Amino acid sequence: RKQFYIMKYFNTIKHQRGALMKALVFGDVHGDVFALEALKRKAKNADIVFCLGDLTIFGEGLPLLLEIINEFPKQVFLIHGNHEIEEEVEEEVQRLNNITFTHKRMIRQDNHTIIGYGGDGFSRRNNEFEKQATEWKSKVKEPKDTVLLLHGPPSNTKLDIPFADYHAGSDSYREFIEEMQPLIVFTGHVHECEGK
After folding, report:
1. pTM of the model
2. Cα torsion 158, 130, 185, 121: sign
3. Could you tell me which residues come within 8 angstroms of residue 186 by beta carbon, excluding any fewer than 6 positions away?
4. What is the phi-psi region of residue 48: left when phi exceeds 0, alpha when psi lies from -120 to 50, beta otherwise?
């Protein structure tokens, strides 16, 4: 059967001081329990797990899906997608011990700073993100150690082309990435760009 979720099974993230971190990155499972169970098995080979949102189809089954993710054998840093409501995800995650809701947060993990921004995915400009980005720019001490998690992609990349010659990403995200120059950016949302 065709899998419609966006997944990069493993990315090795290299810290500027040479340390490596093996990350399992996925998003857009849209309620596929079988995909989550397969990801749970793969997570044992990761150091860390990043979930880029759209776990559900319009919020359906959110508690169950988060329970499955909470059973992953490694810590999961999660942002919501455009199919979830930020407040619902945050409330559900508060009762779970293995998921860190990373939307609008800056978290130090090992030798990396993880920042995340979920939801949206359709706006060229995102004023709320731009305000958050201003705060991050003033607080992030080592951009080259920063992992950025986004649900929607930045504009004009291989990650924002849902069909030929059309870029659907965010200019706000792209400008922030170009200015900040984080170590790596993970993004989901555009299913046609799976694995790029």
Report:
1. 0.84
2. negative
3. 8, 11, 23, 25, 50, 52, 147, 148, 149, 150
4. beta
What's the distance, CA 71 to chain centroid?
18
Q: Which residue has the tokens 């169970």?
A: 37
Residue 133 phi, psi (nearest 5)? -60, -40
Strand pairing report for 146-150 and 184-187: parallel
Element (H, E) at 116: strand 112-117
- Read off the DSSP letter of residue 32: -
Q: Rounded CA gap, 1 and 93, in Å?
A: 30
pLDDT, tens digit, 9 for 90 and up, residues 77-114: 999 998 899 999 999 999 999 999 999 999 998 788 99
* Per-residue pLDDT reduced to its tens digit, 25-82: 898 888 889 999 999 999 999 989 999 988 987 878 999 999 999 999 999 999 999 8
Q: What angle do CA 180, 186, 190 make, to 5 degrees?
A: 120
116: its two tokens = 């995340």
Q: Is the dihedral of CA 116, 118, 123, 125 positive or negative?
A: negative
3-class secondary-structure state, position 166: strand
Task: Determine the 3-state secondary structure of 24 from DSSP.
Answer: strand
Q: Which amino acid is at 96?
A: L
**Spacing of C-alpha 133 from chain mean position:** 16
Q: How far apart are CA 53 and CA 84, in angstroms?
A: 8
